[in-house]
Structure formats: C-alpha cells, structure tokens
Write a structure and sequence with these properties.
Elements: H1 2-23, H2 27-35, H3 38-43, H4 46-52, E1 65-66, E2 73-74, E3 77-78, E4 85-86, H5 88-106, H6 115-130, H7 138-154, H8 159-180, H9 196-201, H10 218-242, H11 245-266
Antiparallel strand pairs: 1-4, 2-3
Helix pairs in contact: 1-5, 4-5, 5-7, 6-7, 6-8, 7-8, 7-10, 8-10
C-alpha cells in the first residue's frame, strides 16, 4: 500500500517533470521556465522535499531504497517480504536534477535562476557527495552523477553551487578513484546490487542474497560509467569554479597581498 501510494504520487510528478524537460531543451524554453518561476516551485515541492530532506533538522536523510526483507507494514497489514525496492520518488528527484542540468546547458546565462533550487537542496547534495556514496548503492551513485552535472553547469553563476563544489570535490574524487576505478576487471566490493532489477542486471538470481555482480554484466558496466561520469562532471565543476570571476578576483587579491608582504620583508 505504501509503495503504491508513493508510486502514484511519483507518477504525477514525473509527468510534470517530463513536460518541463521537453521545454528546457531550447534557450527559449528555459526563458519560459524562468518567467514562470519553475525552479522556485521545484524548490518548494513537498514531494521532492519529503523524498530528499530530513523530516526534522536533526533527522537522517531519506534513503533511496526500502528494505522489505522483514515485510512492509501498511494500512492493510503486513505486506510480502522480498528484495529492497527503489523508491519511486527518489527516481523523480533524480529527474528533477536532470531538469536543472538540462536548463543550465540550454541557456547558460540563466543558470543563476537555479540558485534557489540548489540552496534548498544543498544539504541533500552535500550528504550524497560527502558520505552517501560510501553506502555503495547504485541509486545514490546515479544521484551523485547528476548532481555533479548540475554543479558543473551552474557553479560559475550560482553561489550555492560554487560553495558545494568547494565542500565536496575532494570527497568525490578520492572516493571514485579509490573505490570505483581501482580493480576494473573485478567485481566491485563496494557497490552491491540491491533491487530485483539490479540483481538481474548483475546476472544474479533476483531472490538471492546480496553478493557482488558478475563481470562482465550490465550492473558492473553501469557502475563504471557512472563513476567516470561523476568524476568528469566534478572536474568540470572545479574548472568552472577556478575560472569564475569571484575566484579570479580573490586570487588576484591574495597575490597582491603576498607581493606587499614580500616587499615589506625585503625593505631596508
């Protein structure tokens, strides 16, 4: 029952995001979205907030999967047990990130319009990039890849995105290089297939216990692709931040102060 309710809400949200994604493919469409405050509306969407942000300030972030090993308890009593299933609203959240990235790619000059969206969901993005990836879940790796894409396209014009790059770049790069791209010919010991469709893509029995994916398999290739895409997007975000006017002016200020200090030291 709970899964059906969430899937129904996610279906309505996905339909709206799909229309917005189609509009965001052209600069004129992005202008239309900005005029109608679409990024502001997404930032205050209660479904997206419930799927990504803690219910209380000190609470934990919602997961991308629901564990059904002990069965679900809903309005009609306990449900059947089985492998974890990916939350439909988490997939909707990833599509919302993709919408922001598509809009920023179509009209880079309007990327600042997404600042309110990034500000609201900055805690979620920081959580996924700094510690969520270490959970070894495919859904969170997909989320991290799209989030890095958003940062790469908006960090030059969004202060919130620029701050997130500074906070998370070291964590993302070290984790991807150290955990995802070390033994490319061996099964990943970090990322395990959880949902039934992931286990099928890993060439495993959908009802089997958690175990590494076979190599080669669709699941293993997906992990490698997303890891490389995440790394590429983060490097692009770092390059955008390093060449932004604010950072260049800060570098010039630091350099001028350094010259003054040297001159004072060497002065007779």
């Amino acid at each position: 029952w709970e899964r059906a309710m969430e899937a129904a809400w996610a279906c309505h949200l996905d339909a709206a995001i799909s229309v917005l994604l189609a509009i965001a493919q052209t600069p004129e469409g992005v202008v239309l979205l900005a005029e109608h405050k679409v990024f502001l509306l997404l930032a205050h969407c209660q479904l997206l907030r419930a799927a990504t942000l803690p219910a209380e300030p000190s609470g934990s972030f919602p997961g991308a999967y629901v564990d059904t090993s002990a069965g679900l308890t809903g309005a009609f009593g306990p449900g059947p047990s089985g492998p974890p299933w990916r939350r439909p609203l988490h997939a909707s959240w990833c599509r919302a990130l993709l919408l922001v990235a598509s809009a920023a790619a179509s009209a880079p000059r309007l990327a600042s319009e997404a600042n309110i969206f990034i500000e609201v969901f900055a805690p979620r993005i920081a959580y996924v990039l700094r510690s969520g990836l270490q959970l070894g879940q495919l859904a969170l790796l997909e989320e991290a890849s799209i989030a890095c894409r958003v940062l790469a396209l908006t960090s030059r014009r969004c202060s919130a995105a620029e701050s997130l790059v500074a906070q998370t770049a070291a964590h993302v790069c070290s984790f991807v290089v150290g955990s995802c791209l070390t033994e490319r010919g061996s099964p990943s010991e970090v990322f395990m297939p959880l949902a039934a469709v992931e286990r099928l893509g890993a060439n495993l029995d959908s009802e089997s216990e958690a175990s590494p994916a076979e190599v080669p398999s669709i699941f293993h290739q997906r992990i490698e692709y997303l890891a490389l895409e995440t790394l590429r997007n983060m490097f692009a975000a770092l390059l955008a931040v390093a060449t932004s006017p604010s950072w260049l002016s800060l570098e010039a200020c630091v350099a001028s102060q350094g010259h003054v200090s040297v001159a004072q030291v060497t002065a007779p």
